[in-house]
Specification:
The protein has 322 residues and is α/β, with parallel strands linked by helices. The chain has 11 helices and 12 strands. The chain has 2 domains: 201 residues, Alpha-Beta Complex (Spore Coat Polysaccharide Biosynthesis Protein SpsA, Chain A); 100 residues, no CATH class.
Length: 322
């Protein structure tokens, strides 16, 4: 008999944290699950750690792949999964003991295609609870909540039906925005999305060597500009395109201000002019999240490179850009 839930864990060189991650899953109070671990070409002792856990727990399924990145590792995990619902978990994060039980119960009680969980955001010296905006959503309203920063793009914060993947596309090699691209597609195919109001159920841990804190690059800059275009391309032929067009525009604005926050000033004028085009099409977007704190900088660069550089110095001096 197929398990009710498949926990899919992409693993790449996370040996130090992997034991905590796996222990948090095998120790879940909800036991009707499988644990699909995708080794994404690890070169440390991660494969040995997974193998040791698998010898002790037959629910663990191991998939060994060459390194292709987290998006494709998740894809391979979903293809191998048998559960009705999917829960992602990164190899350096971990779950509260009752996480799957509470999420699955909520999904069944509400007949939901997706359940959104609250989580801890943790670093070496900080721990903050991140709570999604409560409510019951359809696909359009939830996409708006993501695009306007009222909920989170992180796909590991969704327990969701495996059947949603029938029309999902994974962009190979995408180094930034892979969660946003996948989340937008899952959201489109979900009929009912509910937020679970509980204590934080997942610990998202940011380490000094994690992808979140790794160096910025030309490749990441290009991918930040790419993922909003991938979202737009996905929605272009969908019946809800006109309904989400404003949200798609705000996602693109978010990508522009993200690049500025990374001090990507070499192309700031081009980006600012594009932001002004978006503002002209959808008046008021520059006054909403996430662009509102960068509104003056964007307007200065749109006026001229000279005024933009002056305003950029001010943003750096006042630590509006760190």
């Amino acid at each position: 008999m197929a398990p009710r839930v498949s926990v899919v864990i992409p693993v790449y060189n996370v040996g130090k944290q992997l034991e905590t991650c796996l222990q948090s899953v095998v120790g879940q109070t909800f036991t009707d699950l499988e644990i699909v671990v995708v080794n994404d070409g690890s070169t440390d002792d991660s494969p040995q750690i997974v193998a040791r856990f698998a010898r002790q727990d037959p629910r663990i399924v191991i998939i060994d792949r060459p390194n292709e990145g987290v998006a494709y590792a998740r894809k391979h995990g979903v293809e191998a999964a048998r559960g009705e619902y999917i829960q992602y978990l990164d190899g350096d994060d971990f779950l509260e003991p009752d996480a799957i039980e509470l999420l699955y119960r909520k999904a069944v009680d509400e007949q939901a295609d997706m359940v959104v969980l609250p989580f801890w955001l943790e670093s070496e010296n900080r721990k903050k609870a991140s709570n999604p905006t409560p409510g019951t959503y359809d696909s359009v309203s939830f996409f708006y909540s993501l695009a306007f920063c009222r909920n989170y793009w992180a796909v590991w914060s969704f327990l969701h039906k495996r059947s949603l993947y029938a029309g999902v596309h994974v962009e190979k090699g995408l180094s930034y925005g892979e969660d946003a691209y996948l989340a937008s597609q899952l959201t489109y195919f979900a009929r009912k999305i509910v937020v679970l109001e509980s204590h934080p159920l997942l610990h998202y841990v940011i380490h000094s060597g994690s992808a979140t804190l790794s160096g910025f690059s030309e490749k990441k800059a290009r991918d930040i500009e790419l993922y909003p275009q991938l979202q737009r391309r996905f929605y272009a032929d969908k019946p809800t395109y006109r309904q989400v067009e404003k949200a798609l525009a705000n996602v693109e604005l978010g990508a522009i201000v993200l690049l500025l926050s990374k001090r990507w000033f070499g192309e700031a004028r081009r980006l600012a002019l594009r932001a002004m085009e978006i503002e002209k099409q959808f008046p008021g977007l520059l006054h909403q999240r996430p662009a509102r704190h960068y509104r003056k900088l964007l307007k200065a660069y749109a006026r001229s490179e000279f005024w933009g550089k002056l305003m950029a110095r001010y943003y750096l001096f006042t630590r509006k850009i760190k």
